[in-house]
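FAQ
Q: What does a multi-component entry look like?
A: The components come first, one per line:
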Amino acid sequence: MNMNPSKHFDDSAATWDSDPTKVTRALAVAEEIRRRVPLGAQMTGLEYGCGTGLLGFALQPYLGQITLADSSPGMLATLEAKIAASRANNLRSTKLDLVADPLPPERYDFICSLMTFHHIDDTSRLLRDLFTLMSASGYLCVADLDAEDGSFHGPGFTGHNGFDRRALERTAKDAGFRNIEFSTVFRIDKPESPGQTEFPVFLMVAEK
Ligand SMILES: C[S@@+](CC[C@H](N)C(=O)[O-])C[C@H]1O[C@@H](n2cnc3c(N)ncnc32)[C@H](O)[C@@H]1O
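Then the predicted structure of the entire assembly, as tokens:
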């Protein structure tokens, strides 16, 4: 991965959705979320680190409003073109970087995030912020890589090499979440990798 993650995402945005693995991954995560979380038209949602909104678009029919948030201007530009071209009227985009920006005032009944946690150093603070952004009660769904040997991004990557499920569960509990459960929702194959070649993706569902 590029040493400048923001530029990497800006540059990849226009072709992001042409990678079938990314599309299939988001659909698999959406299906598992629908199986495990009682979504409904009365609920407001936030997807944090939405990229081009693959997950948010898949969940939009099952929620009231959903806000798709990302820090990358390139991703947001592609997302906004997709929203404008869609018939959905319950999607909105917003620029949000919880590492740098103040917490917005809105609160959500459902928050999801796919393959974004490993790019954010302070997972503990991120989970506390998402707890604050949640309504009095709600569901958090985080999908990301299980702990891996660093082959996923290769040399130079400074984020997390996936997550140990038990450690992430403890961090989520410390942030205030409860009823935390994990399942394996997808596997990414990288046959060209010099190390690990198969990367499981977990879905953590937690309640406030
Ligand atoms: C691997 S991509 C995943 C995108 C999308 N969730 C998907 O699965 O197709 C990670 C996304 O997280 C975003 N991101 C990275 N750091 C972020 C931050 N601090 N705040 C908000 N978004 C961030 C990137 O811009 C990028 O869109």
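Q: Is there any commentary attached?
A: Sometimes. For this entry: Residues 20-36 form the longest helix (17 residues).
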